[in-house]
């Protein structure tokens, strides 16, 4: 238990022998077409079931179940909170008032504009995320790390095109999620995202939790604001009038209308919460949605967060990349015959003068790690990523018709609301 | 706002949610909801929703100091209760691990099922139960017991009979001795959260031993029901306890029928 708790790396390493690890590594690093233990292709995801709006007591909720039986439930709750005006904001206000006093009408206008700018900025701490994993305390390393890894891209995702030409959804979502939480200068929403993992993590739970959070946020509704401007906020009692946290395009918008015409299908929503994908590199291959055994032999484990760009052409935008400590570092190394005391005599006796030749031939330079390796003998990865590998992973996620688009389209097809 | 039961109930004889004194809330349950565990269940009593999953009986954890010697005569039951942050009306913030309420429910569940299950069949092993409260609206302990029973049945762990629990309360504070000539207080069955907060209540759990062998021939028509669990946190005059118990046990009987229906339905599939 104690070792499990301290595991900050991708997940507890499964008990696999060095020979098995080596076999797995070899089949996953086969050039061009890796052979995965469950027969998937490199970019294929495991099947999953999803539903949203299952908890009536929350602003938004979702449940996702993977085929291996792991399930997660996410509930989003929103509370109204008084904004504590920080030093910077109060300075802006004082400035604005001062300007107003000096210049009269014109200064007043510019001052209020500056104040509004400060108010719409929002603050990252208004989004709070906590993750419950059975067997872990919620201040253990793994839940805290996972929560921060998912909160960061969520808070930082600001539509890039908001200044220039933008879709109708984008105007409402100016300043990203942080901006959406601002009610007025004195009040804001605080968002609590609680993630429950219902079973022990069989594989690294990040993709599961990220997809569930994504769906829950899409389903999240906030009550309609009735008060105006700087009044104390009060809201419409009618829950049917509530507005989605992530605004929808109008229903008259043709869903996938462009695909029939042969063009790029327009996304149903311009602004969406980010999705974090787990990507591993084994040899020269890049593999998506790895299971626990595959992570155990990975050279590199990356968590890549993407979201819709916001433009009408529906491109993807990279939000963050995080490397995750690959657990292969902690595995037991295999011992090659040439170094094994038990078999040393046998090889020396059998081969005689020939013995030097095959030994020199067997040690191969692994082009990825730059280390000498004997094929079939497991050597734990020491970490380190080639820039080329990272670039390849990111490209596979972001490219048109790539994995990121596929995942987001799959999530769009889930009925929300 | 006259929303408290103690003032409106004597006038209308209807509770806050429109039930009469002896009515249960809508009870819905599913079995085998999570394929990754040995047994799992989902149970909703009114707006209280609970997911329960059982792992084991399995070998105890290696790192545990007590793992080797403890449970040498039978399985050890471990219960982990987690009340989700979004379960209540307001989001509850907790410092670090678990709060008082969930650890208390966990302890009661553990002692109830430790003595209820046939643990002697699994020496040196652990049965771990994980309870997640998705939404809390009163009768948490009772709902947790019922959910655990279903999950344990799903896991195929032998027990003498279903352990079903229910809450019962009084429609007033009931702090003075009962007056048989002027009895205006009614017992209430299956309390919801607002009722639970203002009225005295108890949680009772009963079980029936399924008659086996010779016993089956002797007790043929008699439905023998045993109280195996009883907790009470609030204060009530002792003269009311009997009424509350009788109503609670009757509620357990109704719940048992519903749970049996759920189990039979899942077996038919």
Automatic annotation (TrEMBL), chain A:
Domain of life according to the entry: Eukaryota
InterPro entries, A to Z: Exosome_comp_Rrp42_subfam, PNPase/RNase_PH_dom_sf, Ribosomal_Su5_D2-typ_SF
Main localisation: cytoplasm
GO biological process, one term: nuclear polyadenylation-dependent rRNA catabolic process
GO MF, one example: mRNA 3'-UTR AU-rich region binding
Keywords on record: Cytoplasm, Exosome
Location of this chain's protein in the cell: Cytoplasm; Nucleus, Nucleolus
GO cellular component: cytoplasmic exosome (RNase complex); nuclear exosome (RNase complex); nucleolus
Family listed: Belongs to the RNase PH family.
UniProt-recorded name of the protein: Ribosomal RNA-processing protein 42
Organism: Aspergillus violaceofuscus (strain CBS 115571)
TrEMBL record, chain B:
Domain Exoribonuclease phosphorolytic: 23-158
Keywords on record: Endonuclease, Hydrolase, Nuclease
Keyword Transmembrane: no
UniProt GO BP: nuclear mRNA surveillance; poly(A)-dependent snoRNA 3'-end processing; rRNA catabolic process; U4 snRNA 3'-end processing
Any GO molecular function: endonuclease activity
A cellular component annotation (GO) from this entry: nuclear exosome (RNase complex)
InterPro entries given in the database record: ExoRNase_PH_dom1, ExoRNase_PH_dom2_sf, PNPase/RNase_PH_dom_sf, Ribosomal_Su5_D2-typ_SF, RNase_PH
Signal peptide (UniProt feature, chain positions): none
Cross-referenced Gene3D superfamilies: GHMP Kinase, N-terminal domain
PANTHER family: EXOSOME COMPLEX COMPONENT (PTHR11953), EXOSOME COMPLEX COMPONENT RRP41 (PTHR11953:SF0)
Family from the record: Belongs to the RNase PH family.
Stated name of the protein: Exosome complex endonuclease 1/ribosomal RNA processing protein
Species of the source: Aspergillus violaceofuscus (strain CBS 115571)
């Amino acid at each position: 238990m104690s070792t499990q708790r301290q595991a900050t790396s991708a997940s507890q390493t499964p008990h696999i022998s060095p020979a098995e690890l080596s076999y797995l590594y070899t089949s996953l690093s086969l050039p061009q077409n890796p052979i995965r233990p469950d027969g998937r292709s490199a970019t294929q995801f495991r099947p999953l079931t999803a539903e949203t709006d299952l908890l009536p007591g929350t602003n938004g909720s979702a449940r996702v179940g993977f085929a291996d039986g792991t399930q997660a439930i996410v509930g989003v709750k929103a509370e109204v909170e008084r904004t504590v005006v920080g030093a910077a904001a109060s300075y802006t206000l004082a400035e604005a008032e001062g300007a107003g006093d000096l210049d009269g009408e014109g200064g007043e206008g510019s001052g209020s504009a500056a104040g509004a700018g400060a108010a719409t900025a929002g603050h990252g701490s208004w989004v709070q995320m906590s993750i419950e994993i059975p067997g872990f305390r919620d201040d253990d390393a793994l839940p805290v790390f996972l929560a921060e890894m998912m909160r960061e891209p969520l808070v930082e995702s600001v539509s890039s095109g908001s200044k220039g030409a933008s879709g109708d959804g984008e105007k409402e979502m100016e300043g990203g999620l942080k901006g959406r939480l601002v009610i007025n200068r004195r009040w804001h929403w605080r968002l609590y995202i609680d993630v429950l993992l219902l079973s022990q993590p069989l594989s690294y739970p990040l993709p599961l939790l990220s997809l569930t959070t994504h769906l829950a946020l899409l389903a999240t509704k906030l009550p309609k604001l009735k008060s105006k401007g700087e009044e104390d906020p009060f809201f419409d009692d009618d829950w049917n009038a509530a507005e989605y946290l992530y605004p929808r395009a109008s229903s008259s918008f043709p869903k996938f209308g462009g695909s029939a015409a042969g063009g790029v299908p327009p996304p149903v929503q311009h602004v969406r919460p980010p999705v974090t994908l787990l990507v591993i590199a084994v040899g020269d291959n890049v593999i998506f949605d790895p299971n626990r055994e595959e992570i155990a032999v990975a050279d590199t484990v990356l968590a890549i967060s993407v979201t819709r760009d916001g433009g009408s052409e529906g491109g993807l935008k990279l939000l963050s990349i995080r490397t995750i400590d690959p657990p292969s570092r902690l595995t037991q190394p295999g011992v090659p015959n040439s170094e094994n005391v038990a078999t040393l005599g046998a090889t020396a006796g059998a081969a005689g003068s020939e013995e030097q030749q095959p030994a020199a031939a067997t040690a191969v330079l692994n082009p990825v790690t730059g280390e000498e390796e004997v094929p079939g003998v497991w050597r734990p990865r020491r970490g380190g990523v080639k820039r080329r590998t990272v670039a390849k992973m990111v490209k596979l996620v972001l490219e048109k018709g790539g994995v990121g688009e596929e995942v987001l389209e799959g999530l769009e097809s889930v009925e929300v609301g | 706002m006259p929303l408290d039961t103690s003032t409106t109930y004597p006038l209308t004889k209807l509770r806050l949610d429109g039930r009469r004194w002896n009515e249960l809330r809508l009870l819905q349950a599913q079995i085998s909801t999570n394929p990754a565990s040995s047994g799992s269940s989902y149970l909703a009593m009114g707006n209280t929703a609970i997911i329960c999953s059982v792992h084991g009986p399995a070998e105890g954890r290696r790192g545990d100091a007590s793992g080797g010697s403890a449970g040498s005569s039978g399985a050890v039951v471990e219960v982990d209760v987690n009340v989700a942050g979004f379960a209540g009306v307001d989001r509850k913030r907790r410092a670090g691990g678990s709060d008082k309420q969930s650890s208390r429910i966990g302890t009661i569940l553990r002692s109830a099922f430790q003595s209820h299950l046939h643990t002697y069949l699994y020496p040196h092993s652990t049965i771990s139960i994980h309870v997640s409260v998705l939404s809390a609206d009163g009768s948490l302990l009772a709902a947790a017991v019922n959910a655990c029973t279903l999950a344990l049945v799903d896991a195929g762990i032998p027990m003498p009979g279903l352990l079903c629990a229910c809450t019962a309360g009084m429609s007033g504070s009931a702090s003075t001795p009962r007056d048989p000539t002027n009895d205006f207080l009614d017992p209430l069955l299956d309390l919801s959260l607002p009722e639970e907060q203002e009225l005295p209540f108890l949680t009772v759990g009963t079980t029936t031993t399924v008659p086996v062998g010779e016993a089956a021939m002797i007790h043929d028509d008699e439905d023998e029901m045993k109280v195996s669990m009883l907790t009470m946190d609030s204060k009530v005059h002792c003269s009311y306890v009997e009424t509350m118990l009788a109503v609670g046990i009757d509620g357990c009987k109704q719940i048992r029928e519903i749970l049996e229906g759920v189990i039979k339905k899942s077996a038919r599939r």
